[in-house]
TrEMBL record:
<feature type="domain" description="HTH lysR-type">
    <location>
        <begin position="6"/>
        <end position="63"/>
    </location>
</feature>
<dbReference type="InterPro" id="IPR036388">
    <property type="entry name" value="WH-like_DNA-bd_sf"/>
</dbReference>
<dbReference type="GO" id="GO:0003700">
    <property type="term" value="F:DNA-binding transcription factor activity"/>
</dbReference>
<keyword id="KW-0805">Transcription regulation</keyword>
<keyword id="KW-0804">Transcription</keyword>
<comment type="similarity">
    <text>Belongs to the LysR transcriptional regulatory family.</text>
</comment>
<dbReference type="InterPro" id="IPR000847">
    <property type="entry name" value="LysR_HTH_N"/>
</dbReference>
<dbReference type="InterPro" id="IPR058163">
    <property type="entry name" value="LysR-type_TF_proteobact-type"/>
</dbReference>
<dbReference type="Pfam" id="PF00126">
    <property type="entry name" value="HTH_1"/>
</dbReference>
<dbReference type="InterPro" id="IPR036390">
    <property type="entry name" value="WH_DNA-bd_sf"/>
</dbReference>
<dbReference type="GO" id="GO:0006351">
    <property type="term" value="P:DNA-templated transcription"/>
</dbReference>
<protein>
    <submittedName>
        <fullName>Glycine cleavage system transcriptional activator</fullName>
    </submittedName>
</protein>
<keyword id="KW-0238">DNA-binding</keyword>
<dbReference type="Pfam" id="PF03466">
    <property type="entry name" value="LysR_substrate"/>
</dbReference>
<dbReference type="GO" id="GO:0043565">
    <property type="term" value="F:sequence-specific DNA binding"/>
</dbReference>
<dbReference type="InterPro" id="IPR005119">
    <property type="entry name" value="LysR_subst-bd"/>
</dbReference>
Length: 221
């Protein structure tokens, strides 16, 4: 049975048009004519039996179905590009390992050690992608992740690597007295979005009873 899959040309034209919100700019990016972009998208809409853009004169705008499809197509094209680079740089008899890693951990710990791994395993290509937020591993395209403990990893084989040590940091001018718990309650507390319970864990480790709840902290972007 023949699969109902759009051509790569149609998907590339649609992704560019969706991103730019303009057929002419999509055509310029792909070195095509505006008419060619329009025809590719028309074929795609015919295949889907659904409109992807709302057209008003010469202006185009993604409709809800188009916006959803654009997100899916963008993810598929990005994965296809990554897999293509992976295979093109892989020895014929080699393998690859796709790892999602916290950005700081990757730059400060993992990458400096990859040379030794490559020397011991020359037929394995390691591809690293920075991922700050937890995600569902199955179906993500990654073989493993190095990340904080999180419910997203439930059901996965998990290996403990390191403990995390938390400490508060502030400008010296803010240290107006020796009552650190009281001072922290008066100041706006900032934490990483990916670790919303950081202050709660710090308070527990410091054996302090908060006067105000840790939820008063300001989340960082």
């Amino acid at each position: 049975m023949r699969r109902k899959i759009p051509s790569s040309a149609a998907l590339l034209a649609f992704e560019a048009a969706a991103r730019h919100g303009n057929f002419a700019r999509a055509a310029a990016e792909l070195a095509l004519t505006e008419g060619a972009i329009s025809r590719q998208i028309a074929r795609l809409e015919a295949l889907l039996d659904n409109k992807l853009f709302d057209r008003t004169g010469s202006r185009v705008r993604l409709n809800p179905a188009g916006a959803r499809y654009a997100r899916q197509v963008r993810e598929i094209l990005a994965r296809l590009e990554r897999d293509t680079h992976d295979v093109s740089g892989m020895p014929v008899d080699g393998r690859s390992l796709e790892i999602a890693v916290l950005p700081t951990f990757a730059s400060r710990w993992l990458i400096p050690r990859l040379g030794r791994f490559a020397a011991q395993h020359p037929h394995i290509v390691v591809n690293i992608a920075a991922r700050s937020d937890p995600f569902i591993l199955p179906g993500s395209g990654f073989d493993a992740a190095i990340h904080f403990e999180h419910p997203a990893w439930t059901g996965m084989e998990v290996t403990f690597l390191f403990a995390e040590y938390l400490l508060p940091i502030c400008h010296a001018a803010l240290l107006t007295d020796d009552d650190l718990p009281g001072l922290l309650n008066r100041l706006t507390r900032i934490h990483r979005r990916q670790n919303p319970d950081a202050w709660l864990h710090y308070a527990a480790s410091a054996v302090w009873r908060w006067i105000t709840p840790p939820g008063a902290a300001l989340r960082s972007a």
